[in-house]
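Please, structure for the following, as tokens.
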Amino acid sequence: MQDATAKTKVWLDMDQAALDAAYDQAVYAPNQKAVHDRRLLMSAITLQRLGEPQVIAYGSGANHTFDLYRAKGENQPLVIYVHGGAWKNGRARDFAVLAETFVCAGAHVAILDFDLVQDCNGDLRPMVEQVRRATAKICAEAKTYGADPARIHIVGHSSGAHMGGCILTTDWVKDFGLSQHILRGGVLLSGMYELEPVRRSKRSEYVAFTDETVEQLSAIRHIDKLACPLILAFGTLETPEFQRQTREFHAAVTAAGKPAALYIGTGYNHFEILETLANPYGLLGHPALRQMGLAS
């Protein structure tokens, strides 16, 4: 007879409570608020140093804009940054700190705004469509921003890495009439690339997952559309699911014969690892600049 106290496994070896915890960053990152407040402070300081960004619309909605920070010179690389926040938090201005490293190295930076999941009745698909449209506009008009259209890079963290993965696995030919090679590289930190376990977690309380959503927006299922090198990363103090998601996405990409480097941040949690992207000598800042041809 089965032990009456045995807990039902809902994903791999996890019961519901463990799976819910594995998609709740606060459980594994008790300093979440401190890191968040530090990022807002540094973003305010960055705005003082770089000045206000140019806000450019890519659609008709109030949130369909991006903040453009210009580097010196023309024909420079351009970074498109997709912010995280569990799909329900954050605005482009909150992440200004990430622009400075790239701008000072010679890359323009476009930090995307978009509707949050609560603005979309729980549906992630409009959000992904928005960031894809923003990317298409930026690529098409890159020269007007002083950027080289052949050197556009996607960078994303957390739920922004999920959407970044969707951008990088877009069928640009079919859906936008563009070349499949419009993007030069991608840097994805601590993301989700298979939505089935997320669907089974407590995130389904505010995200309206469907079979269609999971199929369409799980980047690991569309690796055939990936057309540029990736840098993938996670921290060893992240939740077990965020670590597994990145490891398995990396393994799937490389098994498909496509280039992907994996960086493991020993001693970093989900929020701390993002800070290394804002440092030109950091665990991820330096590889990102090297991918863009701005560091040796």
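The chain has a mean pLDDT of 97. The chain has one domain: 18-291.
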